[in-house]
Amino acid sequence: MTPHTPHRPAAAVGLALVVLVSGVLAAPAYADDGPSAPPGSTTSQPPPEVDANAPGLKLADGATLADARVLDIKSVVEDLGGEERREDTNTDIKFALQAEVLFPKDSSKLNAEANSRIKAIAEEIEASGATKVRVFGFTDNLGSYEHGKKLSKFRADAVHRQLMKDLDSSAITFEIRGYSEDYPIADNGTEEGRRKNRRVEVSFPRGEASQSGNQS
C-alpha cells in the first residue's frame, strides 16, 4: 500500500530540527471533514530557506512544501516499553500514547487504564494554561488506508471526549484528526515499529505562565 503523502518526523535532544511538511496546516477546529494535514506545531525561530527542488525531497505528484519551521527540542522521554512518549520543545508539549494502552484491538472504546493516563495529560494541559489542544490519531500500514483513517479518527475522538470530561474545556479549542498510516514514527516493517505507529498524540502550546517560568 502506498501511504498518502507520508512524513517521517524526527526528534533529537537539545538540537534544532527543521520540519518539512506537505500542504498547509489547517486552522484549529472541532471537525475533521477537510483534507488531511500534517501535525502542526508552533515555531520559536525564523525558518531557514528550503529548496523545494532539492533531490533529497520526495513529494507525491501535485504536493507542495509548506513553509519550513524550526522546533527547538528540549527533551524526549520514552518509557522502557515504548508505551508512552513525551516530547518537549520551547513552545510545545506532545504526548504520544500507544493505541494498545488505550483501546482493545481494532477498537475505539477506551479501556480501563486509559482514563488515568488521559487525566494526567489533562493536568499538564491545565498547568500549562494552554487554550489550543491537538488530538491526532494514527495507525500502522496494515489493512486499508480508509479503514485506518476512520479508526484513527474515532480513537482521537474518544480521547478528546475524555479530555473534555477532565478539563474546563470552555476556554480550549480542540483540533481532532485521524491520519491512518501517514506520518509514522517507527519502521512499519517490524511489529515493534507498527506498535509505536499505532498511537494517539495529544499536543499543545505552552501557556504564558509556563513560558514565563522557563525564562526566569
Description:
Helices cover 24% and strands 22% of the residues. The chain has 216 residues and is of the alpha+beta class. The chain has a domain at 75-215: OmpA-like domain (60s Ribosomal Protein L30, Chain: A, 2-Layer Sandwich). The chain has a 7-stranded mixed beta sheet with strand order 1-2-3-4-7-5-6. The longest helix is centred in the C-terminal third of the chain and has 22 residues, at 145-166. The N and C termini lie far apart (50 Å).
Rounded to an integer, what's the Rg over CA atoms? 17 Å
CATH class of the domain at 75-215: Alpha Beta
Number of distinct helices: 4
How many strand segments? 7
CATH topology of the domain at 75-215: 60s Ribosomal Protein L30, Chain: A
For the record, the CATH architecture of the domain at 75-215 stands as 2-Layer Sandwich
Catalogue the unreliable spans: 5-37, 41-45, 208-216
Overall SS class: alpha+beta
> Secondary-structure element sequence?
EEEEHEHEHEH
Task: Tell me, briefly, the overall form.
Answer: globular
First CA to last CA: what distance? 50 Å
**Per DSSP, what share of the residues sits in E-state strands of 2 or more residues?**
15-25%
Question: Which features would summarize this protein structure in a list?
Answer:
60s Ribosomal Protein L30, Chain: A, seven-stranded mixed beta sheet, 4 helices, 216 residues, single chain, disordered C terminus, alpha+beta
